[in-house]
Each structure stands twice: as structure tokens, then as C-alpha cells.
Specification:
By secondary structure, this protein is of the alpha/beta class. Helix content is about 35%, strand content about 15%. Bound molecules: adenosine monophosphate and manganese (II) ion (3 copies). The site of one manganese (II) ion (MN) has 4 residues, from loops.
């Protein structure tokens, strides 16, 4: 599925090379939009596809060291490009501090880019993630909402460390901090890396299973943003809101129906169908749900780290052709 990165005959590369080298701005700050982009033609899987096609190798979900990934925004841009990604978004948790770097690195590579974020939300007592795409990263209300969402993370992390200390693991707060690049964004993933490094567990999945999920010693329930607020922050900043990896939530059928209904009512328009967090039966289930609710479909690896993630950037199967891709509605938000 990978395409060579530097193939000069690659249509999207030559398309990128033709793109004007005008200064790049984040959406909402200038008239950078390019209406003809949606109808341009490129190739993927040896089929001619347009940049609004479901077959586009779009990867619209991943994390840098600005949240809980291990690579810089620049290294992720390189990796996405090398893996044949044709449209990319960095979606750090509750944080847009990496957007300018990601967009600049993508532009330097000729890789079309959408701004991105993944907002933590509490819905029906569970944590749900809402991805935002194609917004103005400088929007003040979005910035304030994200700052408030990040706000409780340090207090929560200190409580997590207290729980772990009682279970015989001392100094976990300081240990987790060693893995944190952005002190506002200490997350369970950083604790997981510390517990692997110190030999308590073999890998991060084991840490989550034994220590960091509901009922385990390092788990601290947390109240994140409200669903409606997250959707509004994104949409008022000119972006589209997408339910991230719905197959991961432990909802009853009624709760899941309520999530999709309320998300739509708040103005949400998309759902991740093909993601690194789904198995193939989830692709089928959420493709049907996308059609049932009239939602556009998104695709993203949720890549965090070469050492930890089982799905690399740009390596997922394409979206089912019957779905409307979220990027078909975002053509004028793409940065080139
Ligand atoms: P937080 O936002 O601090 O609650 O951390 C959530 C992050 O933990 C997710 O975005 C994933 O990167 C990671 N995570 C959650 N569950 C698991 C798991 N079972 N195995 C590995 N990583 C996980
Ligand atoms: Mn994460
Ligand atoms: Mn997530
Ligand atoms: Mn994610």
C-alpha cells in the first residue's frame, strides 16, 4: 500500500510542485483557498482518483510530542509523506500548539494539510474523543476551550501518582514528567511509558490493563469538556467535528445512539470509520451508521509512536466507496 515518497512521476507530487509557493497561513486568516483543488486528479492504488475521492490516502488522526506522541510535528510530516499520505492532519489531544509547525513542515514537503485536534469529552460517564478538522487554529474561543480542557490534567496526574504509590510504585508523577514535552498535556500515555521503562510492565497496553483503566490503582475519573461545547468550538472556528474511533467506547446500543443523535444535533458532521482503533467489522458497522445518520466518513491511523503504534501513518485500507469522505467538504480548508 505504500508508495515511494520521491517518485517524480507521481501525479500528486507533480501537482504539489505546481502549487504556488505563496506564503502559507492557517485557515480563516487569509483567502488561501483553492476551489479547483477538489477536482484535481491524482493516483492511488493505481486508480485515477480525485482529491475528494474516498480512495484518497488521507490520514487525519495522529499525535506528536506536543501531546502524547513521541515524534515531533516535523518528523510526523516526513513520515506521512514517506508513507504516501496524500492529505494529512496532526490531531494532538486538547492542544493546537503543534499546528503551525505541522502545517509548515507539510507545506515544505508538498503534502496537503488540514488543521486538526482531538478533544476529550465526557458523555454518559465515558470519555469520548471528538476530532476537529480544518478550523482556524488561532480562533480565541477554541483556544480558551482547549486551555480549560487541559486545565485539570496536572491535578489528575498527581492523583494518579498517589494511587500508583499506594500500589507500590513511587514517584510516578516525576517519572511520567520525564516523557512530557508539553507540561500542560501530561497524559496516561506518559505514565504508561514510565512503567514500561522501569520494568513494571512489558508494554503500554499492559500498563493500561493493569493500572490505568477504570477500577485500577492509577485510574482517576475525570470530567472533560461537554460534547456540545467541543463541537461548537470546532465549528465556530470554521472546522468540522468528527466522532473519533466510536468502536472503542463501552456504550450500550442506546447510549451509542444518543451519542450520534446529540452529536448531530450539536452540529457534528463526521465519524471515523477506518481508524487504527477499529477492526474490519467496525469498518462495516460504522460505515452503516455513517449512512444512517447522514455523517461524512473520516480515516486516520491514530499513530503515536514507531515503538508503540501497530498502525503506521497512511497504511489503513481506504474508506468504503459508498461513503462521503469528510475531506470532500474541506477542500477549501486544505493548506498547500
Ligand atoms: P488521557 O487523555 O490522559 O486519558 O490518555 C488517553 C490516551 O491514552 C489515549 O489517547 C491513548 O493514546 C492512550 N490509551 C488509552 N487506552 C490505551 C490502551 N488500552 N493501550 C495503550 N494506550 C492507550
Ligand atoms: Mn493518545
Ligand atoms: Mn482518541
Ligand atoms: Mn488519538
Amino acid at each position: 500500500m505504500h508508495r515511494p515518497a520521491q517518485d517524480p512521476t507521481d501525479p500528486i507530487m507533480s501537482l504539489s510542485a505546481r502549487a504556488p509557493a505563496a506564503e502559507m497561513r492557517l485557515p480563516g486568516t487569509s483567502s488561501h483557498s483553492n476551489p479547483s483543488a477538489a477536482s484535481r486528479c491524482c493516483s492511488f492504488y493505481n486508480h485515477p482518483v480525485t482529491s475528494s475521492s474516498a480512495a484518497l490516502n488521507a490520514d487525519l488522526h495522529c499525535h506528536s510530542c506536543v501531546s502524547d506522541g513521541t515524534l515531533t510535528p516535523e518528523a510526523l510530516a516526513q513520515r506521512a509523506h514517506a508513507n504516501g499520505v496524500q492529505l494529512w492532519a496532526l490531531t494532538d489531544h486538547d492542544e493546537v500548539g503543534g499546528q503551525a509547525r505541522a502545517a509548515a513542515a507539510a507545506q515544505a514537503l508538498g503534502l496537503p494539510y488540514l488543521t486538526g485536534v482531538e478533544i476529550s469529552v465526557t458523555f454518559a460517564g465515558e470519555t469520548v474523543h471528538i476530532v476537529g478538522l480544518g478550523f482556524d487554529a488561532a480562533d480565541p474561543a477554541l483556544g480558551a476551550g482547549l486551555a480549560a480542557t487541559r486545565g485539570g490534567r496536572e491535578r489528575r496526574a498527581r492523583e494518579m501518582a498517589e494511587g500508583l504509590a499506594k500500589a507500590g510504585i513511587p514517584d510516578a508523577f516525576e517519572g511520567a514528567l520525564r516523557y512530557v514535552s508539553n507540561p500542560d498535556l501530561i497524559s496516561r500515555t506518559h505514565f504508561a511509558r514510565f512503567l514500561v521503562e522501569t520494568g513494571v510492565c512489558n508494554d503500554t497496553s499492559e500498563v493500561f490493563r493493569r493500572f490505568l483503566t477504570d477500577g485500577k490503582p492509577g485510574y482517576v475519573p475525570h470530567r472533560w469538556a461537554a460534547l456540545g461545547d467541543a463541537v461548537r468550538w470546532i465549528t465556530h472556528a470554521g472546522g468540522l467535528a468528527v466522532i473519533a474511533h466510536p468502536g472503542r467506547y463501552k456504550f450500550s446500543a442506546n447510549e451509542e445512539y444518543a451519542l450520534f443523535s446529540e452529536f448531530k444535533a450539536h452540529g457534528g458532521t463526521g465519524v471515523e470509520v477506518v481508524t487504527g482503533s477499529h477492526n474490519p467489522s467496525d469498518y462495516v458497522k460504522y460505515a452503516d451508521i455513517a449512512l444512517e445518520f447522514g455523517l461524512q466518513a473520516s480515516r486516520g491511523s491514530d499513530f503515536h509512536s514507531p515503538d508503540e503504534s501497530h498502525t503506521d501513518l497512511g497504511t489503513l485500507p481506504p474508506l468504503p466507496a459508498k461513503l462521503t469522505p469528510v475531506w470532500s467538504a474541506l477542500a477549501d480548508r486544505v493548506l498547500r
